[in-house]
């Protein structure tokens, strides 16, 4: 994994990254799949790796930047502060400590509904969305992708896909999601996670 190197700009923007996918802005929403497959098979614990990377990325933000975190399976689960969720929060140390506790409380379970979680993130109007999943099914249709692009209207969406073995065929909807929304697509082979878990 590359070394982290956050960068702050004179105009107040900050650069941060998830698994080497780097972008800059003032407002960030992180959308992470927590369906049952993210911890299955045992040893290929995508969710644990994603949570660690998320906490590191949030650490790059300062109190003038805003964020929100959405974990999803069949339904989205949004970080809430004082009972209020679905809105961007400033990255104060108090808020970052609260969201770290929330992140650590998340377990993997259930199915997968990409579109609902992405729609919720877009409605918060961030500069950048980091979208992470291990699921190429259910595949977002061309109509759904077009709808997301129209809603996003300039929000950059980075699509990070986890899988076991070689990179999937180039027609994965994740690649198209990133392309249509000026984002980066990255595939991460999780096989090394299982190899590490198998070592004595």
List the helices and strands and how they pair.
Blueprint lengths: L6 E2 L5 E5 L2 E5 L1 E7 L12 H15 L5 E7 L3 E3 L1 E2 L2 E2 L3 E2 L2 H13 L8 H10 L4 E6 L8 H11 L3 E8 L9 H8 L4 E5 L1 H8 L2
Parallel strand pairs: 4-5, 4-10, 10-11, 11-12
Antiparallel strand pairs: 1-2, 2-3, 5-6, 5-9, 7-8
Explain this structure.
The protein has helices spanning 46-60, 93-105, 114-123, 142-152, 173-180, 191-198; strands spanning 7-8, 14-18, 21-25, 27-33, 66-72, 76-78, 80-81, 84-85, 89-90, 128-133, 156-163, 185-189. With 200 residues, it is of the alpha/beta class. Strands 4, 5, 6, 9, 10, 11 and 12 form a 7-stranded mixed β-sheet that branches. It has a 3-stranded antiparallel β-sheet with strand order 1-2-3, covered by helices on one side. The protein has a two-stranded antiparallel ribbon with strand order 7-8. Helix 1 (46-60) links the parallel strand 4 (27-33) and strand 5 (66-72). Helix 1 (46-60) runs antiparallel to helix 2, helix 3 (114-123) packs parallel to helix 4 (142-152) and helix 4 (142-152) runs parallel beside helix 5 (173-180). The longest helix has 15 residues, at 46-60. The chain is globular, with a radius of gyration of 16 Å.
What is the CA–CA distance across the termini? 22 Å
Mean pLDDT: 88
3D shape: globular
**Helix and strand string, N-terminal first?**
EEEEHEEEEEHHEHEHEH
SS field, number of helical segments: 6
Structural class category: alpha/beta
Largest sheet composition: 7 strands, mixed
Total strand segments: 12
From the alpha carbons, calculate the radius of gyration and give it in angstroms: 16 Å
Provide the low-confidence segments as ranges. 194-200
Helix content: 25-40%
* Strand composition percent: 25-35%
């Amino acid at each position: 994994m590359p070394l982290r190197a956050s960068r702050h700009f004179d105009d107040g923007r900050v650069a941060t990254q998830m698994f080497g996918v780097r972008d800059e802005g003032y407002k960030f929403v992180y959308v992470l799949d927590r369906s049952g497959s993210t911890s299955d098979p045992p040893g290929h614990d995508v969710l644990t790796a994603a949570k660690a990377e998320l906490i590191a990325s949030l650490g790059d933000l300062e109190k003038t930047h805003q964020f929100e975190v959405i974990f999803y399976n069949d339904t989205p689960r949004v970080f809430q502060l004082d009972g209020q969720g679905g809105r961007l929060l400033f990255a104060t140390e108090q808020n970052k400590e609260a969201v770290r506790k929330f992140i650590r409380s998340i377990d993997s379970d259930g199915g997968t509904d990409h579109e609902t979680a992405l729609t919720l993130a877009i409605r918060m109007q961030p500069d950048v969305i980091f979208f992470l999943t291990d699921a190429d099914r259910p595949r977002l249709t061309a109509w759904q992708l077009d709808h997301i692009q129209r809603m996003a209207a300039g929000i950059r969406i980075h699509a990070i896909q986890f899988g076991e073995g070689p990179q999937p065929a180039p027609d994965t909807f994740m690649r198209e999601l990133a392309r249509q929304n000026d984002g980066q697509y990255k595939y991460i082979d999780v096989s090394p996670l299982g190899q590490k878990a198998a070592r004595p």
